[in-house]
Write a structure and sequence with these properties.
- It is a single chain.
- Helix content is about 80%, strand content about 0%.
- By secondary structure, the protein is an all-alpha fold.
- The chain has a single domain, classed as Helix Hairpins (Orthogonal Bundle), CATH 1.10.287.
- The radius of gyration is 13 Å and the shape is elongated.
- The two termini are about 25 Å apart.
Length: about 60
C-alpha cells in the first residue's frame, strides 16, 4: 500500500485499516509458528504497512 493511498483515507478509515493489518499480522505469526506459511515475505510487507498507517495517523493528529 502506498502512502498516498493512506493519506487520501479519512482518519477512521486508516484506523480500521490498521486494525485489519494487525489482525493479519497476528494470523501470520500463528502460521509461522505452525510452519504453514505460503508467503513469508508478506510478513515484512504487513509490518511496513502498519508502520505507514501509524505514521500517517500521527501526521493527521498533529495537523488537527
Amino acid at each position: 500500500m502506498k502512502p498516498a493511498e493512506i493519506r487520501n483515507m479519512t482518519k477512521a478509515e486508516v484506523e480500521n485499516k490498521l486494525i485489519a493489518l494487525r489482525e493479519q499480522l497476528f494470523k501470520m505469526r500463528a502460521e509461522i509458528a505452525t510452519g504453514r506459511v505460503e508467503r513469508p515475505g508478506k510478513f515484512r510487507l504487513i509490518k511496513r504497512d502498519i508502520a505507514k498507517c501509524c505514521t500517517i495517523l500521527k501526521e493527521k493528529e498533529s495537523e488537527a
